[in-house]
What does this fold into?
Amino acid sequence: MARFIFDNIEGENIILEFKCKKCFSLTKTGLLDVPEMDLDNLTTAKRLFKHECQCGACYSIEIYNGLYNSYGIIQGLDSEEEDVFVHEIPDVQYNKDTIYVDTINTFYKIESIINSVDSFGDEERSFVYGLLFTNLITVFDSFIKIYTEPIILSDNVLVERFSNSFDIRNGDIEEKKQKIRHFYSKRSFQTIATQKKLFKEVFNIEVDIDDRIKQYVAIRDVIIHRNAIDPGGYIQKINKNQLLAALEVVKSHVSVINMALFNYETD
It folds into this structure.
């Protein structure tokens, strides 16, 4: 087992990152709720979690939060000396603001790179545009996941709605939260159908989703999963104008989501 500490943590959640003993790659957990200590009796609170690496290796995580000693244990790692990186996630409101700003800054970086490769040859420039396009859609998907997960996990009403909408029906509220974390770690939220289900059925709000998002996701899948060869056998190429247009659509959609959910409260 491996032991880690998180003394003086200010946030309500943590994310752990450590090297998987099976595939040797870094694996990162979803949001883990730090249990609240019983201040009346000054007793240490304990909470259990499960984490599965993409390679299939499973780990049991124990988190203890006490007045003078807050720490955790990861069962399944061979050595107590294994490095475990603890990422502190502050309260939900701060987290949302930070995620949105970081995402917009990433879009500006993508735009800067787009404009910096004008002097490249046609083949090299097309290759870079393809990479940036796939990165743009991946950032968009990550934004939705990282932005909405802590909102849902912080509200038991949303936990129940999400569980009903995405067929997570068994278990008490803590077990459902754990299943939602697993769901978020495995599923993509870039498709229009999944987004509409998330916003309409879980948050009970209407978010106008640009139909071009569906086209961009399809192009991204061709580039990544079919080596840029579309079903008709043609090479999928991205030019500068297409990339800039996609950037503006995705950026606008991220802003719409932020405005709809930033001050969200359940009815």
